[in-house]
Amino acid sequence: MERFKNRNILAVILIGALIFAIFTNEIGLQKFIDLIGNTNKSFLFLALLFNLLNIITFTLSWRLLTPGKISLYKLFKFYMAGTFINNITPSFGTAGEPVKAMFLGKETGKNKAECFAGIVSVRMLNMFPFLTIGMLGAWLMFSNPKIELGLWTMAGLIFSVGLAFSMFGLIIYFYMRKDKLSSFIHSTIRYLAPFIGLIKKGFEHSSYVAAVDISINSFHGGLRNIHQDRFGLAKAALFSYLGWVFDILSIYMIFLSIGENNIHISTLIISYTISMISGWLPLFLPGGLGIVDGTMALLFYYGGTPWEIAVLATLLYRLVSYWFNTILGAFYFWVLLKPK
Predict the structure, then answer these.
(1) 78: domain range?
(2) For residue range 141-157, what is the model confidence (pLDDT) as tens digits?
(3) How far apart are the C-alpha atoms of 192 and 201, rounded to whole Å?
């Protein structure tokens, strides 16, 4: 397992170095150095601050749906440790969720399935604000006569919105139909058994059938109990909205730091939304590395931003939101696993 994790980290570093080299080459080394030297450091600090506020608000959202009492700082550590695993593992951005449940269950003494139910509830909850903010961006873009959408931009927008709503609908469907969820998980484990065997020797799907069914029942019951707390859900949704807004503000601060203040809010929101959705697609790339970066830079460019600025803004944003979070998450993951 340790070797598997180290291999993932090495892959992330190599992919990141390749992306940095490509983006730097697109700008030109000397021009890249000049642009970096002229960035407004105060706005860069604000971008980092908004990124931290994004993490904190999502942690607060999770805390409201967490079984048992736990301090915000401890939950923050669990959240960052899970983020680290999400960012180094090609698994649809979900590999860190069981890690969060494991740490939370150990800390609170609660059933891990119940803890996982809270995490999934937050993921479902975060999807709704994300989609509504994306739809707001689309409306602002279509209502602005100065913005002309090309064929590929339109196709990408329609595909991304359709994919996001399909995924959200699938999650709701699995929540309503426990039997379908059970069938889906069993089929998935059966399909992934050869790959799981690379990490866990001697793994056999048949020996885990009963355990999986018990976990699904516990998880579904915990999910149902959480959804009965309407007031808690409303507060969690508010923090979720704030989280997405803080993340978009972080990108805006990046643009201000490099002297680009003419980007339209609709371009900012749509580029952000489609880029995040694009990161869900390649299951073989950890954290959407390369896909998110390339998509974001292209969308900023098609939205009217000069190519060098679009590339640099994307590079700086990913440095703040992906690399900083991954390093911070790695630190907390190491702290949590360190023998006491």
Answers:
(1) 2-337
(2) 667 666 565 665 666 66
(3) 13
